[in-house]
Design goal:
Blueprint lengths: L1 E5 L8 E5 L9 E10 L2 H8 L10 E2 L3 E9 L11 E4 L2 E2 L5 H4 L10 E2 L11 E5 L3 E3 L6 H21 L7 E4 L5 H13 L2 E6 L2 H10 L3 E4 L5 H8 L5 E6 L3 H8 L2 E9 L12 H6 L3 E4 L5 H12 L7 E6 L3 H10 L5 E5 L1
Parallel strand pairs: 11-12, 11-14, 12-13, 14-15, 15-16, 17-18
Antiparallel strand pairs: 1-2, 1-4, 3-5, 3-9, 3-18, 5-6, 6-10, 7-8
């Protein structure tokens, strides 16, 4: 089978398109013929060697993918060979205290496709049968590959961790990114007033079309000052922050009293300055956010199937052009998700 993998850490050029052995399913496993796989920023970190996760070379990236069941190594309920499926992006152990309590996103023994398990940058992937989910015929493979992590993360950040509800206000950073554009839709579904930042007016117009109410071009304006101006000095109830560095520090300045900032990324800086005085005087809250649980993933994929959430796809590249696709993601000159099609 064809794969796009890397034999050493480095820039996009280390992704090479080569032949590899096609996997065979063991007991309780399936092989999925991949039709589309989403690119996530963690793919770039993993390829560059900055993710702090051990790698065995050659390594196949790709956390979220969809396709058809090519082979089964056991019973799969109503599913059979040839059926369309999307694959849950994590493999939780199912037996630790977090899995038992329904918080499998905090599983202490979980695995990730594309990180410590071969992922979807390939024509075929071996997966546990438990990770298979039926994909309705009206949902395209590319839409499925663009939805799971973006909408799952946005839902976990805004609804599960940020407790965003109707009538509240939310600031969504980097609205042109995959999770940013997804978060706008989730916040709209929740009935919130949405403040969105982006690096260009073009991206902000796209954000407005998705449902953002107040637009801030952070390449031109100090977004913290603009948020406070727009809210009459009050600030917002919730901030979704996935940038890190100075953006995190200034995001704290945007919070209303008793507001909460939920952080889910740190590509612009992992160590930040933190002024604790206004934090406790205004009774602000800070929450970390990891991945969505399996139930949350199925929730958002159901909303996609119902047409209530719609993934935004910037471009789909053939698998042979994985390196070029990574360059596009690194350039940040895109809106939504970038997809690979094996």
């Amino acid at each position: 089978m064809k794969v796009a993998w890397f034999h050493k850490f480095g820039g996009p050029e280390v992704l090479v398109f080569e032949e590899a052995a096609k996997p065979a399913p063991g007991s309780g496993e399936a092989v999925v013929r991949v039709r589309a796989v989403g690119i996530n920023h963690v793919d770039l970190d993993h390829r560059a060697g900055t993710s702090r996760i051990p790698v065995s070379f050659p390594h196949i990236l790709g956390r979220e993918f969809a396709g058809e069941i090519a082979a089964l190594g056991g019973k799969a309920g109503a599913l059979k060979e040839g059926d369309r499926v999307w694959v849950t992006c994590r493999v939780p152990c199912g037996s630790c205290e977090f899995c038992i309590s329904g918080r499998d996103n905090l599983c202490v023994r979980e695995g990730y496709f594309g990180l410590d398990i071969p992922g979807g940058y390939a024509e075929f992937v071996k997966v546990p049968i438990a990770n298979l989910n039926a994909l309705p015929s009206h949902v395209g493979f590319e839409d499925a590959a663009a939805s799971q992590i973006a909408f799952g993360t946005a839902w976990h950040v805004l609804i599960s961790r940020g407790h965003l509800r109707a009538g509240q206000s939310v600031l969504i950073q980097a609205a042109g990114s995959g999770i940013g554009s997804a978060a706008i839709q989730v916040a709209k579904l929740a009935g919130a007033t949405i403040f969105a930042t982006a690096s260009s007016d073009q991206k902000l117009e796209r954000a407005k079309a998705l449902g953002a109410h107040h637009l801030i071009n952070y390449s031109k304006d100090n977004f913290a000052e603009r948020v406070m101006q727009m809210t009459g000095g009050k600030g917002v109830d919730v901030v979704m922050e996935h940038i890190g560095g100075e953006v995190f520090t200034r995001s704290l300045q945007c919070l209303k009293r008793n507001g909460i900032i939920v952080t889910v990324g740190a590509h612009a800086g992992e160590v930040v300055e933190f002024d604790i005085i206004p934090f406790f005087r205004k009774e602000l809250r800070l929450a970390g956010s990891k991945n969505a649980s399996v139930l949350e993933l199925r929730k958002v994929m159901g909303l996609v199937a119902d047409g209530k959430l719609k993934p935004i796809i910037h471009k789909a590249f053939p698998l042979s052009q994985a390196a070029e696709a990574h360059r596009v993601v690194e350039s940040r000159d895109f809106f939504g998700k970038v997809i690979l099609v094996p």
